[in-house]
Amino acid sequence: MPRPIQASISLSALSHNLDVVRRRLEQAAQATGGAVPSIWAVIKANAYGHGIETAVAGFSAAQGLAMLDLAEAVRCREAGWGGPILLLEGFFQPADLELVDRYHLSTTVHTREQLDMLAHARPSRRVDIMLKLNTGMNRLGFMPDAYGGAHVRALQLREQGVVGAIGKMTHFACADGPQGVAKPLRVFDAVTGGLGEGPVSVCNSAATLRYPEVAVDRVRQPHWVRPGICLYGASPFADVSAAEFGLRPAMSLRSQIIGVQDLAAGAEVGYGATFRADRPMRVGVVACGYADGYPRHAGTGTPVVVGGVRTRLVGRVSMDMLAVDLDPVPAAGVGTPVSLWGQDGPSVDEVAQAAGTIGYELLCAPTPRVPVKRDP
C-alpha cells in the first residue's frame, strides 16, 4: 500500500477565503461610500503549493488571477479561465510576448528593457500593462524620478497600437508591520497622481486585510487588490492569526504513526540526540520528513495533533520520519492519524513560527512524492 502521507486541498476553503476578502472590501466600501475593488487572486508558485487547476476552480468568483510564470498562465487558460490574467514579474525575453498575445495576458512592466521589447513587438491585439513604481521596497519597479518617463514611453506605445490600458501599481514592503503603508502611499500618489486614468493596484494580502480603505478610496480609478497568502488560509501577520479574520486552512498535511518506542528516562531521540527524555515516555514515529516538505529546522515542541489530541514534536526531523510525544495520547499506536498542519491540526502559521519561518514557505514545500487529494 502507499506510504501513509497525504496533502488534501479544500476547494470550499479557497472559495470561503476569497469571500472573506470580498466582504472585508465591501464593508470598507460601505463605510467610505466608495466602490468595491476588483480582486486578482494571486496563484503564483503553483498557487502557493495548492495546484493551479485547483486554484482556478476555487477562485472562480475572482475577477482576475495573478502569477509569475507564463506556463502557469497557459495552464489557467487551458483549465477554462477566461478572465484577466496578470503576470506579476512581466515577461523576460521578446519571445514571451508571443504567448502574452496568444493567451491574452496582461503584464507588469518594471524595466526600460521591457518597454524596449514592447516597442519591437507586433501583437495581434493591444497588450494591457501595469507600470510598476518602486516606492521604497527596492525590489522591482521604476524609481520615482524615472517613472514619468516610462509612462510617457508607454503612452507612445499605446499610440502605436502596441499597448492598451496603462495601469499603475506598486508593492508594499511593510503592510504587515508597524511601519504600515503611509510612506510608500505618499510616494505613489506624488508620482502617479497627475498621470491620467487607468487601473491602480497597490494592496497585497496584508494591505487588503489591514487597510482595505486604501483600495476603496482610490476607486476614482478602477482598482484591483492582489491578495495571496490569505486566500489559502494563512496569515500575513505575526500578531494576528488567520482564524481571527475568519479564514480557513485550504491545505491539510496528514500522516500516521508507523512505529512506537517506549523510552527510559535519559534515552535520546533522533539524529544528533538533540532530545533526551527526562522521564519514561512513549514516542511515536510519523511517516513524514523533510523530503516530504516538512521543515527540518522544526525542533522539539513544534505542535502536532495525534489522534485528535495536541502534542509536540521531539528530536530532529529526518528525511522520511519525525518523532512525536505520545504521553498526552495514551491510546495512540501504529496507524493512529497525525495532523501536521491544516484543518484538524495546528495552523501552518503555528508550525512555521516554531520552525523559525513563515507559513508561505511551508505551503509551498510539500514535495512531489506527497500525494495530493482535492476535496470539495
TrEMBL record:
Keyword Chloroplast in the entry? The reply is no
| One Gene Ontology molecular-function label | alanine racemase activity
Residues of the active site: K44, Y271
Which Enzyme Commission number(s) are on file for it?
5.1.1.1
Name of the top EC class for this enzyme = isomerase
Q: Which SMART domains match?
A: Ala_racemase_C
Residues binding substrate? R139, M319
State the protein's purpose.
Catalyzes the interconversion of L-alanine and D-alanine. May also act on other amino acids.
Modified-residue entries (N6-(pyridoxal phosphate)lysine), positions: K44
| Known catalytic reactions | L-alanine = D-alanine
Pathway per its UniProt entry is:
Amino-acid biosynthesis; D-alanine biosynthesis; D-alanine from L-alanine: step 1/1
Q: What protein name does the entry list?
A: Alanine racemase
